Amino acid sequence: MGVVExxxxxxxxxxxxxxxxxxxxxxxxTIHRDSLQSKLKNGSQLRVKLGIDPTSPDLHLGRAIPLLKxxxxxxxxxxxxxxxxxxxGIIGDTxxxxxxxxxxxxxxIEHNMxxxxxxxGKLLDMEKVEFHHNxxxxxxxxxxxxxxxxxxxxxxxxxARDNIKRRxxxxxxxxxxEVLYPLMQGYDSVAVCADVELGGTDQRFNxxxxxxxxxxxxxxxxxxxxxxLINGTDGRKMSSSWGNTITLTMSADDMYGKIMSMNDxxxxxxxxLCTRVPLSKIADTEATLLADGNPRDIKMGLAREIxxxxxxxxxxxxxxxxxxxxxxxxxIPEDLVEIVAPYTETLVAAGVVTSKSELRRLxxxxxxxxxxxxxxxTEFPKSLDAPxxxxxxxxxxxxxxx
Length: 402
Description:
Elements: H1 16-24, E1 27-31, H2 33-41, E2 47-52, H3 61-75, E3 79-84, H4 88-91, H5 106-112, H6 116-120, E4 129-133, H7 135-138, H8 143-150, H9 155-159, H10 162-169, H11 176-191, E5 196-200, H12 204-213, E6 223-227, H13 252-260, H14 267-274, H15 279-290, H16 295-311, H17 313-328, E7 337-339, H18 343-349, H19 356-364, E8 368-370, E9 388-392, E10 396-400
Parallel strand pairs: 2-3, 2-5, 3-4, 5-6, 7-10
Antiparallel strand pairs: 1-6, 8-9, 9-10
Helix pairs in contact: 1-2, 11-12, 13-16, 13-17, 14-16, 16-17
């Protein structure tokens, strides 16, 4: 069993209004709410756990939702336990996947999680956070222990999950490796003696696994708080796999522009889930939108708020000035990404486009133009005598160098 670090003893805040918001804002389900609410009100310091697998190098706003909820718990004086799943990340969680997730190598995992602690520190006071990698305990488990864990679950429990059932019905392969993932996430809760675990609604089965395993180790089953998922820039669930993310590592300008490119229907959900603007003010915002208020101006306020959280107020103001000058007044940003030949490979490497396929789609759709004349390109110029500024898609600009 894992070794638990000593908690930092902090004064616990039992303010009823703050507890109510903690348990309702962006929360879809709590197991069991009455039990958790009682613990929060009686002043007990709880160990609140969140695990994040390093499946990509950058955390995004979807993953920041439970991180913000962790911050809410931290501000009430509870002990935060943040786990980076360097071991579970290799195995791969398919909770929200319609196909088998490939196993990642140790090298990829090491690269991906290199700055996770720093990124989480944008929202959490990391000096007060108990931080772990779950290889600390999962690598030490024996077959006997894994057998004991597996004995607490049935195959029927696993295949009853919607996405697994769909894959089986379609004749798609489901590996035995995937069956092990919930056991490992559940054991994380045992290793750190979690009182509460946070996660998205797609994690329900894995979160319940902790409750099933803890009594086997004479621990009280953890309470669970499940938060809402958000859509990405293309209207689908935000996911690194789909490239529709707004990451915490984006520049202030890019983050601002990405938020402004979202559908207007996402304004209220993003205010609620991705910020801590008072709910009363968000209700007023929603009423304004329903009364045909200008969604662009409201979305600019949202972009300022989110960019300010991760880059600071001044950076948010500067990003807004760039956005207005570039997209509302037709200007070209001064600080351009400079691209050298081979242009396709350099654009992908610089992150201007996610892949060669995306670039080809932009060319085919007339989405790459001369930023000054508006001329559309179907391919890059074969030779250049002078630098050429291109508009890539709706809001990206690059300077091609000869």
